[in-house]
Amino acid sequence: MSLLLNLLSGLMLVSGAILVVISGVGLLRFPDFYSRIQAAGMTDTLCMILILGGLMLRTDSLEVGAKLLFTLVFLFFTAPAASHALTKAARQCKLSPWRSDKEDESSQP
Amino acid sequence: MLKYAVSLTVILAVIWLLFSGNWTHPILVPLGAVSVALTVYLAYRMRVLDREGHPVHLLVPVIKYLPWLFKEVVKANLVVASHIIRGRKSLSPRLCRLDATQKTDLGRVFLANSITLTPGTVTVYVREQEVWFYALTEELEQGVLSGEMDRRVTRLEGES
User: Fold this and answer.
1) If you average pLDDT over residues A3-32, what whole number do you get?
2) Cβ(A57)–Cβ(A8) below 8 Å
3) Domain region containing B17
4) CB hemisphere CA count around A91 (13 angstroms)
5) Which residues cross the membrane (chain A) (predicted)?
6) Are residues B27 and B103 located together in one domain of the fold?
7) Cβ contact, residue pair B89, A29, below 8 Å
8) Is the pTM of this model over 0.90?
9) Angle between helices B59-86 and B105-117 (to 10 degrees)
10) Are residues B34 and B108 in the same domain?
């Protein structure tokens, strides 16, 4: 049973770490501010769930598990607020989204 | 009002006990009880102990809604990851508008938060009856515009 839990939590931690790396690559590869927020949003959701869930399976005390669960819940409610605030601020400053047909003009910062 | 005060007290007490780990300490536990009472009193003074400030009636509908949202989050994550690997040529960003059918502000906040939580779409504006959001590709846009999320949030709001 504990072997199974260890395997499961290891699998979750590794896949979470791989997704963090992919989203970091996306942060550099995506063309403009709005799409980069989407790449960063991956770390806020699935990566965070996988890594915290994997750690939760490894805890042996109720308190540590509860703290991890609360971290997950708080991040689940605050991360969208941060992305929304960033996007809205960019929109208020009249930053227009990147378009694939106008790459030459708008892709340079 | 009393209902919300009691539920807030219970929730805060449970959180305090879980976070501190002290269940029997002779000084810390009474101090925790005092801090819980002070927090509830301050919430009462700030007039946030109401249906909107402490939406405890949404607890069961939200728990029923979360598995579906989780499934959508996983799907959207995989889509965004595949776009990262395929590069910028596969993107077609757009801003689009969704008619929101929720009646309360809280329901619209739930909808906007759900849209932002699924990677690939971010809410930009929330107005009375509409939500503007940014989507990375047409596929992700259609996922929100199909209205399933809107329907589910409206149902969640109505169940309370």
Assistant:
1) 91
2) yes
3) 2-45
4) 18
5) 6-28, 40-58, 64-86
6) no
7) no
8) no
9) 30
10) no
**What is the reported pLDDT for A97?**
81
Q: Tell me the three state secondary structure of residue B98.
A: strand
Residues of A in contact with B19 (CB under 8 A): 63, 66-67, 70
A53 — pLDDT class (breaks 50, 70, 90):
very high
Contact A67 B18 (CB under 8 A): yes
User: How would residue A102 be classed by pLDDT, with cut points 50, 70 and 90?
Assistant: low
Residue of A nearest to B122 (CA): A84
Task: Let me know the angle formed at the C-alpha of B127 by B123 and B132, rounded to the nearest 5 degrees.
Answer: 35
- A97 at interface of B, judged by CB pairs closer than 8 A: yes
B88 touches chain A (CB under 8 A): yes
Same structural domain for residues B90 and B140? yes
Q: What confidence score (pLDDT) does residue A7 get? A: 93
What are the residue boundaries of the structural domains of chain A, listed by start? 2-97
Per the domain annotation, does B109 fall within a domain? Answer: yes
**Helical (H) or strand (E) element with B135:** strand B130-135
Is B50 inside any structural domain? no
* Amino acid at position B129, single letter: Q
Query: Consecutive sets of 10 residues in chain B, 160 residues long: mean pLDDT of each?
Result: 87 89 86 94 88 80 89 89 86 86 85 88 87 87 84 80
Q: Which residue has the tokens 């770490």?
A: A17
**Interchain contact, B18 vs A62, CB within 8 Å:** yes
What does residue B144 show for φ and ψ, rounded to 5 degrees?
-85, -40
Q: Sheet of B94-99: strands edge to edge?
A: B94-99, B130-135, B121-126
Establish if B155 belongs to a structural domain.
yes
Residues of B with Cβ-Cβ distance to A98 under 8 angstroms: 91, 93
